[in-house]
Amino acid sequence: MSYKEVELKDYEYIMSITENDKERVFFKNEINEDYSHDELGGIKKMPDIVIQAITTEEVSKVMKYAYENNIPVTPRGSGTGLVGAAVPLKGGIVIDLSRMNKILELDEENLTLTLESGVLLMDIGKYVEEFDLFYPPDPGEKSATIGGNISTNAGGMRAVKYGVTRDYVRGLEVVLPNGEVVELGGKVVKNSSGYSLKDLMIGSEGTLGIVTKATMKLIPLPKKALSLLIPFETLEKAIDTVPKIVKSKSTPTAIEFMQREAIIAAEEFLGKSFPDKSSDAYLLLTFDGNSTEEIEKAYENVANICLESGALDVFISDTEERQESIWSARGCFLEAIKALTSEMDEVDVVVPRNKIGEFVTFTHELEKKANIRIKSFGHAGDGNLHIYILRDKLSKEIWHTKLSEVMQIMYDKAKELKGQVSGEHGIGFAKKGYLKQSLPDQCISIMQGIKLAFDPKNILNPGKVCE
């Protein structure tokens, strides 16, 4: 596909859309290097024009112009993605939606929140809690935008009990590649009206349309919460306990696994001490509900299951301060691991819950075999594993060779265990080769057909997901 080379007159037209607001439109050398990449290292490409849009109308006009002139467009939120989905591989225009950050309506009768796509995840939680309401999805990166969460169908730690972003999207306003604006879904709870175009948009990583507004489902805020930190002698024993917990009917909000190395790294990174680091492996569970009795019954049942399955102890964190010390450590694992090495890449495979132990044990063996450091933690309750391959002092050439080999081995193992390539970070540019290997050719062809139906000129976020 050949695209139009961007010229000064294209910049001038985009400027005119904003009434010549030089604070929001940038051309060539004026563009900040941040726009060339997201949080994935190693893949960079500068755009020719950046517009920080503030209305749906602006996004629509830019897309219409780009469509008519065959200019590629890459939508972008906070740039916190981990697969290169916000990298403008073909140059062209980047539409930065982070300034479209207004909360538009809280509907307490329908329990929905309507907002622009640039609103940050952290701001949603704070805002709705004031009304005794709760937005459950809890991806780790709180500075991500809701539009980015929708575009990757982000998951997070509370997925065990509450599900993922998809489960909370009621309606979307979307700008299509030709500039037309469509409303998908709405405030209705049930909808069997034809193909679910709304659900196609969720997880499409900005390749089918640009989400400009969203109507999200809320639930009443649980009144109480506590966490259990449970040490085990080995990670295998910890993870083998998870299916028993899930089967027990005492559903925790989150079930995370972690190892001592990650905890020590987090302690150093935060400058705070963790409640316990005497063991090699831990499960971290949270329970929430509306009464102390309800939570106590659930956690006592789970605590007994863990002790019967070889847990060394059960630490109860029932104060805000104690919970904060544990969860702040868990929340910074990624940053702490990053600080320990020169470069890293991640595999966020998802496997059936009863295969987590097998997969983690496999990565430990692979670490020794490949002679490269591999660190992992993740959502034990939903099978989504975050496995980090660390470069350390390897030369660029050896790093890329080993990284490619190790990733291939891990994705092959995930496929063998009936897992999938990504649990929550998406495919973007970095993982599309692995996606093609993991799915039948018919499925990839269907995806490509969907892309063609939405974007016949292939101008919206080209080079991503299934291309």
TrEMBL record:
<dbReference type="InterPro" id="IPR006094">
    <property type="entry name" value="Oxid_FAD_bind_N"/>
</dbReference>
<dbReference type="InterPro" id="IPR016166">
    <property type="entry name" value="FAD-bd_PCMH"/>
</dbReference>
<dbReference type="InterPro" id="IPR016169">
    <property type="entry name" value="FAD-bd_PCMH_sub2"/>
</dbReference>
<dbReference type="InterPro" id="IPR036318">
    <property type="entry name" value="FAD-bd_PCMH-like_sf"/>
</dbReference>
<dbReference type="InterPro" id="IPR004113">
    <property type="entry name" value="FAD-bd_oxidored_4_C"/>
</dbReference>
<dbReference type="Pfam" id="PF02913">
    <property type="entry name" value="FAD-oxidase_C"/>
</dbReference>
<dbReference type="InterPro" id="IPR016171">
    <property type="entry name" value="Vanillyl_alc_oxidase_C-sub2"/>
</dbReference>
<dbReference type="Pfam" id="PF01565">
    <property type="entry name" value="FAD_binding_4"/>
</dbReference>
<dbReference type="InterPro" id="IPR051914">
    <property type="entry name" value="FAD-linked_OxidoTrans_Type4"/>
</dbReference>
<keyword id="KW-0285">Flavoprotein</keyword>
<protein>
    <submittedName>
        <fullName>2-hydroxy-acid oxidase</fullName>
    </submittedName>
</protein>
<keyword id="KW-0560">Oxidoreductase</keyword>
<dbReference type="InterPro" id="IPR016164">
    <property type="entry name" value="FAD-linked_Oxase-like_C"/>
</dbReference>
<keyword id="KW-0274">FAD</keyword>
<dbReference type="InterPro" id="IPR016167">
    <property type="entry name" value="FAD-bd_PCMH_sub1"/>
</dbReference>
<feature type="domain" description="FAD-binding PCMH-type">
    <location>
        <begin position="43"/>
        <end position="221"/>
    </location>
</feature>
